């Protein structure tokens, strides 16, 4: 959420999400920042479009009750609106559902409809047509057209089959239209802002940059707990590199493992800590690339446990491929790593983050994927690791990547 919202002081902020209410990002990236906004005196309401099946299945009903309880504990009301099942998207119109809700809940005060992503924004723009006193804010967390290509193995449209290229172009057209028609746009990096201005001709004055943040106080390292966790994991005499994430290809798990292997060859006390719910898959991969037994630990952690495992580390890994998706990105993991006091070994060209980490001394930049680097680069990196500035990492998180800085 932008600092600009605070200065303009809307009477009510309505946060709209499409089908993401049960995702892992909803608590840290929606509930918590909106709770901070509420604490500053704003009237905040959470709206979530959820599939009709979520109302029927007992397990999903229970998960929604838990999510609503989390929102309630943060002082927020989470309201669900039904959207049709994915297999029958035209069964009814989300636009009509949202318009009815806005009309029924009309107030005399100005309302800011903060929409996460272009699909939610597209619904909101149509629903708000002709309604007075409602401002639509497009919260652009990524470029979904480019992401659609990348998830299917294509860095550019040129290499994609026509059906994939066509769908990616359709998604980009929706994004561009949302950015052009919304009253304001929030994006996650200066790199994304430049892309919106240069590629989509969006007026600079209506764009605010708010990176993906975290609650830095929550992640601040507890020295005693760090000692206990390292002893519990049996790594108290190790130099620990941390990978937190999944086996998803875009997170570069294999390249991260290659990086660790090369560091360990030059630093025998190195140990890899993998925080993931896909422990078995990681164990298989790490064996396959030739890591010796006992040189890594995999742990499955809930969202609330991740920070304590991060405290056990010394340096974090954030490897990404060079492409448009990553060039404009702001990874949440980066904010969490820094808040936990972890310097980073990071690929160059990740949003605004890579240059900040390298320039301020809490990051080592890689100009290519680890599997392509020459031996001399690994020798140099091994020497650089000991010069990384942990205090600079924590300072950057506190001053640039805390939600409270943007309300």
Highlighted features:
single chain, 407 residues, disordered N terminus, 13 strands, 6-stranded parallel β-sheet, Rossmann fold, alpha/beta, 7-stranded parallel β-sheet
CATH topology of the largest domain: Rossmann fold
> What is the number of helices?
18
Distance between the termini: 7 Å
Major sheet attributes: 7 strands, parallel
Gyration radius over CA: 22 Å
Which strands sit side by side, in order, in the main sheet?
3-2-1-4-5-6-7
Topology:
Layout: H1 3-8, E1 12-18, H2 26-39, E2 43-51, H3 58-73, E3 77-83, H4 94-104, E4 111-116, H5 118-127, E5 134-140, H6 144-151, H7 162-181, E6 184-187, H8 190-200, E7 207-209, H9 216-219, H10 223-233, E8 239-244, H11 253-266, E9 270-275, H12 279-288, E10 296-299, H13 306-311, E11 315-318, H14 324-327, H15 332-339, E12 344-347, H16 353-359, E13 363-366, H17 375-384, H18 390-400
Parallel strand pairs: 1-2, 1-4, 2-3, 4-5, 5-6, 6-7, 8-9, 8-11, 9-10, 11-12, 12-13
Helix pairs in contact: 4-5, 5-7, 6-7, 15-18
Word description of this protein:
There is one protein chain. It contains 18 helices and 13 strands. The chain is an alpha/beta fold and 407 residues long. The protein folds into two domains: 3-209, Glycogen Phosphorylase B (Rossmann fold), CATH 3.40.50; 216-406, 3-Layer(aba) Sandwich (Rossmann fold). The chain has a seven-stranded parallel beta sheet with strand order 3-2-1-4-5-6-7, sandwiched between helices. Strands 10-9-8-11-12-13 form a six-stranded parallel beta sheet, with helices on both faces. α4 (94-104) crosses α5 and α15 (332-339) packs across α18 (390-400). The longest helix has 20 residues, at 162-181. The protein is globular, with a radius of gyration of 22 Å. The termini are close together. Mean pLDDT is 94; it is low at 1-9.
